[in-house]
């Protein structure tokens, strides 16, 4: 969360970190600069996962990026020039359950979403 004059601590941010996967990405594209550029298509790139960085999983590159859940995102992107490029598949990790509630309602309800986020995190930690 960024500090700004318009920051309202009572309203939950619609931006969440999600892993973006690029299956069968060409090996010459496994550079931090290019991977961060691919992540930037979806939001602010935060980190390249370790397996991608060290090359231990050449079948898929993964980048952690910030997503605004109020927007929709493509499942394919065009890489390269118009004549020599190709369509690259994109797989987004599953959004947490509270995201679907927000999309169905079509509005951002800070307190409701915060409750769903806390419930989701507690379920992940087996506290419920």
Automatic annotation (TrEMBL):
Protein name stated in the entry: Uncharacterized protein
């Amino acid at each position: 969360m960024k500090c700004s004059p318009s920051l309202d601590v009572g309203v939950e941010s619609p931006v969440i970190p999600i892993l973006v996967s690029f299956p069968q990405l060409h090996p010459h594209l496994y550079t931090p600069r290019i991977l961060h550029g691919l992540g930037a298509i979806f939001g602010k790139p935060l980190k390249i996962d370790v397996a991608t960085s060290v090359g231990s999983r050449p079948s898929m590159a993964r980048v952690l990026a910030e997503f605004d859940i109020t927007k929709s995102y493509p499942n394919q992107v065009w890489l390269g020039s118009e004549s020599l490029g190709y369509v690259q598949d994109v797989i987004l990790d599953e959004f947490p359950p509270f995201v679907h509630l927000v999309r169905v309602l079509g509005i951002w309800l800070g307190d409701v979403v915060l409750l769903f986020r806390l419930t989701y995190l507690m379920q992940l930690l087996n506290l419920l």
